[in-house]
Specification:
With 190 residues, this protein is an alpha+beta fold. It has two domains: 67 residues, no CATH class; 102 residues, no CATH class. The chain has five helices and six strands. The strands form two sheets. A three-stranded antiparallel β-sheet has the order 2-1-3. Strand 1 and strand 2 form a beta hairpin. The chain starts with 25 loop residues before the first strand and ends in a 6-residue tail after the last helix. 22% of the residues are buried.
Length: 190
Amino acid sequence: MAQEWNIRPRGHVCSICAQPFVDKKPCVSVLRETDSTYERLDCCLACWKATPRDWEPFSVWEGEYEAPAPAQIRNEPVKKETAEELLRHLIMLEDPAMQNVVYVLAVMLERGKQLIERDAKPHESGGILRVYEHKKSGDTFVVLDPRLRLDQLGEVQQQVVELLSGTHALGDKTENAKVENEELKPKSGS
């Protein structure tokens, strides 16, 4: 099963015919599982329907292409990390100690209508792999739902609040998790 995944943006041209997408027209997004990763394909509807495949998609969904908006310049003296920026950062770090935080951030963004859940598949760990698409940019996020218990939620929410408020730096959290894991390992030569 593929394990490697980072955020993949929506393409601006069809993966099959290489024609640019037209704003507000339908397109098909596909995740294809390979040996070690997921490959994202974005296709115009006609190409997707007409092209024969000898493989099954991991996930497929139809959406409406939105041309990227021109970049806006903001005049912010202090940059506060948003939930979306934090989620992107944590996914790029691929730190297993932060998987619960990643999941809670994804759920927050889904409830805030920034992410749309496109698919969900069982994972060998007992959790669920959830495929989210960013509503505006079309970026795809594959997030492991670790099936948090209610008694775990308070601690994870506190971590999210601390990271978003800037009370604790991200390095502090991942370093603390590593130290806790080291303390649980048996000492050699004892």
